[in-house]
Amino acid sequence: MKLSQFKFRLPEELIAQRPAPERDQSRMMVVNRRTGEIEHKIFKDIIDYFDDGDLFVYNDTMVFPARLYGNKEKTGARIEVFLLRELSAENKLWDVLVEPARKIRIGNKLYFGDDESMVAEVIDNTTSRGRTLRFLYDGPHEEFKKELYKLGTTPLPYYINREPDEEDAERYQTIFARKEGAVIVPGAALHFSRELLKRLEIKGVNQGFITIHSGLGNYRDIDVEDLTKHRMDSEEMEADEELVKLVNATKDGGHRVCAVGTSVLRAVASSVSMGDHMKTYSGWTNKFIFPPYDFSVTDALVSNFHLPYSTMLMMVAAFGGYDLVMDAYKKAVKEGYKFGVYGDAMLIVS
């Protein structure tokens, strides 16, 4: 498929700038990929589409406050630093992006905080924008991380045109978050409230957890028309034995597995084994999914409405079928659905 096939008109006012007042009160479009039927619901109605023995798989990654601002030594120039991942706890090395990149060279020092007590030194240039920083801090690692995160703010995506606030600290995080490592929240899972989870539990719908630490590669522009030539950034993931047993027992029992979010869809597809089953996996995945693609484990998908040309839209189209999904997106625009991480939801069932 071609990149240009994922273009559609998205009015700027349809990109959600804030979350819904309640997690499970967003709108939800339900798309049946077998019949082509489209329904318009509220997210908490999702319980009506699943039965005793079905399984929801959630991403339990935790977003950390990755965006911080420092000042360059001597010039005092303001530099934005985006923490991507910790490379070495012992040496306090971090892989980061910096803006403006042209002002930063190896050997430069950056000072953070009102009292400039946190200092970092640039020790490597990895890309045109990327750098490796060594933070100069003498205390214990846990104390260092605590102080570093105090300086950071919620890493809202580029299309949210405002500064993060206290509400974002809570709402740009799922209720399942427990394993730190993501800079992008699993947006589809933001719709699940504790009350909705309890109702699903009472109905007999099971829950399982996979970990995939979503990175900025999800927002990186694709610069090739031929999608087979695009390379995804690698993301760390883990599908443990507990989840694998749960998924495989669900499949063997003739029940459905629902992936909550494209990150889960991708992680499950990276852990597929023979016979429509999963296998344990711990490591990295750079799997890029676009139509056509045969999903052997996942039977249903919860996703938000994604922006044009995005890899997340491509994954949704691969699962639901290109023509049906793109038609549903046109209807979503016409009906005023909200797009983006704080936007409304789409449920694809068979």
Topology of helices and strands:
Layout: E1 27-32, E2 38-42, E3 55-59, E4 61-63, E5 67-72, E6 78-88, E7 93-99, E8 109-112, E9 118-125, E10 130-136, H1 141-151, H2 166-171, E11 179-182, H3 194-203, E12 206-212, E13 235-239, H4 241-252, E14 257-260, H5 262-269, E15 281-285, E16 300-304, H6 311-320, H7 322-335, E17 345-349
Parallel strand pairs: 1-17, 3-12, 3-14, 4-11, 14-16
Antiparallel strand pairs: 1-2, 5-6, 5-8, 6-7, 7-10, 8-9, 9-10, 12-13, 13-15, 16-17
Mean pLDDT score, rounded?
A: 93
**Element pattern in H and E:** EEEEEEEEEEHHEHEEHEHEEHHE
Write down the CATH class of the largest domain.
Alpha Beta
Number of strands: 17
Radius of gyration: 21 Å
Terminal Cα span: 24 Å
Outline type: globular
Q: How do the strands of the widest beta sheet line up side by side?
A: 2-1-17-16-14-3-12-13-15
| Count of separate DSSP helical elements | 7
Largest sheet entry = 9 strands, mixed
What is the count of structural domains? 2
- As a percent range, the share of strand residues is 25-35%
Structural class: alpha/beta
CATH superfamily of the largest domain: QueA-like
Would you kindly provide a written description of the structure presented here, covering whatever features stand out?
With 350 residues, the protein is an alpha/beta fold. It has 2 domains: 242 residues, QueA-like (3-Layer(aba) Sandwich), CATH 3.40.1780.10; 85 residues, Thrombin, subunit H. It is built from 7 helices and 17 strands. Helix 6 crosses helix 7. It starts with 26 loop residues before the first strand and ends with a strand. The mean pLDDT is 93. It catalyses: 7-aminomethyl-7-carbaguanosine(34) in tRNA + S-adenosyl-L-methionine = epoxyqueuosine(34) in tRNA + adenine + L-methionine + 2 H(+). It is found in: Cytoplasm. Monomer. Belongs to the QueA family.
